[in-house]
Specification:
By secondary structure, this protein is of the alpha/beta class. The chain is built from 10 helices and 13 strands.
Length: 258
């Protein structure tokens, strides 16, 4: 593979980030970054929320990287959608040749309306993205036809096509986070430098009507305890991480595993 991919966390400007909480790594993008690197793509992560660059600076960084694909996703914040669309439009205006992919919880639910809202988006990844994103870009390296690509909503000319959903990943241990993409010195939490996010499990065993997470993840699954310990070891020894937050909906759904 020789495709070049930029992962972008759009700016949100939450007041809590600048005044006490600190900036947390965009775990969703980091999670798909590892599989993309392992599949042979050249990947760059730009946390636009953290850096606060102007759009001209952001576009210059993307152009200097000679990107082929732009992947945007915001971690757990529907409020960032408006900014994500603004970012996509600004990039497309100057770099119209780039393929644009959008993903995350909100785009997974609102994929039809978003595709109608923003014609600059080439595809939306619905649900978890590790396998889908790699398969999507591999397909694009050979053809424009995504007819057999599970888990995406895409354009064929003026037509928006909704492919069938992808089966949830069975073995989460197969996909490693792309820790090497993170600008570690910039992330902190409650005063602790080098703060990392990690996910032991996905989904929830409950089906509360006020929560959409169980519908997004489909079923509760978890990494092996051995894999989690290995990831913690990597974070501590290779990246000098001081504090780890777990992004689980229901960490102890299986008490024996926990």
């Amino acid at each position: 593979m020789d495709g070049r991919v930029v992962l972008i966390n759009p700016a949100r400007h939450f007041i809590a980030n600048a005044h006490g909480l600190g900036y947390l790594i965009p775990l969703g993008l980091v999670s798909i970054g590892g599989p993309l690197i392992d599949a042979g793509f050249t990947v760059k992560l730009i946390d636009h929320d953290l850096y606060g660059w102007s759009y001209p600076r952001l576009i210059r960084e993307i152009a200097d990287f000679n990107a082929d694909y732009i992947l945007l996703g915001h971690s757990g914040s529907t409020a960032a959608h408006k900014t994500a669309i603004q970012t996509i439009k600004a990039i497309h205006q100057k770099l119209p040749h780039l393929r644009v992919v959008y993903g995350g919880v909100y785009p997974s639910y609102a994929h039809r309306s978003i595709m109608a809202e923003c014609e600059e988006i080439d595809a939306i990844v619905r649900g978890e993205g590790e396998l889908t994103v790699v398969s999507l870009l591999r397909t694009w390296e050979q053809t424009d036809d995504l007819s057999y690509m599970d888990g995406v909503t895409w354009r064929r000319g003026e037509e928006v096509i909704v492919n069938r959903s992808r089966t949830p990943i069975k073995d989460l241990d197969e996909y490693r986070p792309g820790w090497e993409l993170v600008d570690w010195e910039q992330y902190s939490m409650f005063g602790f430098k080098n703060a990392a996010g990690l996910q032991f499990s996905r989904g929830c065993t409950l089906t509360c009507t006020y929560c959409g997470q169980w519908m997004f993840w489909k079923k509760w699954r978890h990494r092996s305890p051995e894999n989690i310990v290995e990831q913690l070891k990597i974070l501590a020894t290779q990246y000098d991480v001081k504090i780890v937050w777990f992004a689980d909906e229901n960490f102890a759904a299986d008490r024996d595993a926990a």
